Amino acid sequence: MKNRSANQPAVISTVAELRWAVRAAKASGGSVGLVPTMGALHAGHLSLVSQSKRDCDFTVVTIFVNPMQFGPGEDYDRYPRDLQKDQELLAPHKVDLVFAPSREEMYRPGHATHVEVDQVADRWEGAIRPGHFRGVATVVLKLFNAAEPDRAYFGQKDYQQSVVIRRMTTDLDLPIEIGVCPIVRDADGLALSSRNAYLSTDERNRGLSLSRSLRAAEGLVASGTRDTKSIEAAMRKILSAAPVEMEYAAVVDPDTLLPVDRVERAAVALAAARVGGTRLIDNTILR
Ligand code: PAF
Asked: Which residue's C-alpha comes closest to atom 9 of ligand 1?
């Protein structure tokens, strides 16, 4: 266990220590909540921690920048890493344990096993970032196996990720309840993301077009528009006026992520764009 100052959560770095600690908590009848993160924590992550603390007796936060989910040329090397700051942010939440493994601890020499989720992982983010969800599903399954949680918490901000993880959990009969917590936004509407730190002031202002496009989609649905083409056209107009380099603006089925023609029941509006060198994604549930 690494050194820590008063109130900071205990940090462990091996799967063996994690298993031991979780099994000890379970032996005394406690339920275990897992909050997987890549660190660079913000209020969005902390909302997952708070939900786990409300639901479970023992909360584990994992901090691991997973190389397997980054493609060539993506931001793996520059992804923000500051374990000390993350521990300080977690201290008031009184989490029970932080698991911060090394790359070698998670992927032993010769690692050759991967988890592929088909269909829901293939489009949108999956099409733009080939191999991304394979990396996410593999590391999340490894974290589930190591921590054996009763519940695990993910943010709605990565909507497709939450669908992929639910699919994997169902398909592999994992006895884990998946909680998806609402998006946390800055006062100006930008969805919180560790990658927002890359944005200049101008890029941030342009990046706000994503949440504006989603508010427009919500407004159209609220005023009776059902036709998806009109909703998507309104979203695209806002994104191209910003301007940002739009990757997709789509209204999809919340479970299959297939495009829908009309919003007759719940649907999800997804938006992704590049602003300068930074990719931003956002979404909203249309009811
Ligand atoms: O959402 C994230 O931060 C990551 O994709 C996750 C779930 C921690 C897996 O590395």
From this structure: 136
